Amino acid sequence: MKSDKLTKFLVTISLALFGIVFLLLAASSWGILSLSKFINYLEDGPMFVRILLGILFIAFTVGLVYVIIRLFKLGKAPKAAEMNLLTRSNAGESYISSDAVSQLVSRLLKKNKQIKSAETKVIPVEDGVNIDIKSIVFAGTDLTQLCSSIQNSVKYEIESTTGIPVRNVAVNIVKTVQGSEPVQEAVTSRVN
């Protein structure tokens, strides 16, 4: 979720800049700081200062527009890919988020003693979900059997718990480690 971190960063920067501007305006109105002297300095000051301020103003404006669009999601329809249909009846529809599906997969993987750590990614597709699993497993594990076991158990668990068809479970073993290495975070999840 890099874009969420970027949005939070830009919101923080925007709020800090707004705070500084309001402090300067308040100091000017109270007579602590002369805003007219500052403006005169900018007008008569070195060219590089004016260019730098122009670039900062443009960057700030672009960042502010980006933040506004991200926060209020202007012009964007709700992402249907974030929710998966559970049931549909005369009374209405029920949905489950991809994040909730990813958490179910993560809990299932934590129970497997052959997996040191794993990262899950749930990708909604038409009529179901695809699940990608990247894992680090302990050395000495029968990798073919482990992958098959993970695929079958994840498919069964998600379909029986949620009713959402699992179209594909991709298990990627990215590393094998010795059992004596310290165990870090058991399982992490990521939603696309």
Structural features, described:
The structure is a single chain. With 192 residues, the chain is α/β, with parallel strands linked by helices. It has two domains: 2-72, no CATH class; 81-191, Alpha-Beta Plaits, CATH 3.30.70. The chain is 51% helix and 27% strand. The strands form two sheets. A four-stranded mixed beta sheet has the order 5-4-3-6, with helices on one face. Helix 1 crosses helix 3 (47-72) and helix 4 (98-110) crosses helix 5. The chain is elongated. The protein starts with a helix and ends with a strand. The model is unreliable at 182-192 (pLDDT under 50).
Topology (SSEs and partners):
Layout: H1 2-29, H2 35-44, H3 47-72, E1 83-89, E2 92-97, H4 98-110, E3 115-125, E4 128-138, H5 143-162, E5 166-177, E6 187-191
Parallel strand pairs: 3-6, 4-5
Antiparallel strand pairs: 1-2, 3-4
Helix pairs in contact: 1-3, 4-5
Strand order, main sheet: write it out: 5-4-3-6
Proportion of beta-strand residues? 25-35%
Work out the helix count: 5
Q: Output the helix-strand order.
A: HHHEEHEEHEE
C-alpha end-to-end distance: 8 Å
Major sheet details: 4 strands, mixed
Instruction: Please provide the count of β strands.
Output: 6
- Count of the domains: 2
Shape verdict: elongated
**CATH homologous superfamily designation of the largest domain:** Cation efflux protein, cytoplasmic domain
Low-confidence stretches: 182-192
Mean pLDDT: 77
Structural class assignment? alpha/beta
In percent, how helical is the residue content? 40-55%
Q: Write the CATH architecture name of the largest domain.
A: 2-Layer Sandwich
CATH class value of the largest domain: Alpha Beta
**Radius of gyration in whole Å, from Cα?**
26 Å
CATH topology term of the largest domain: Alpha-Beta Plaits
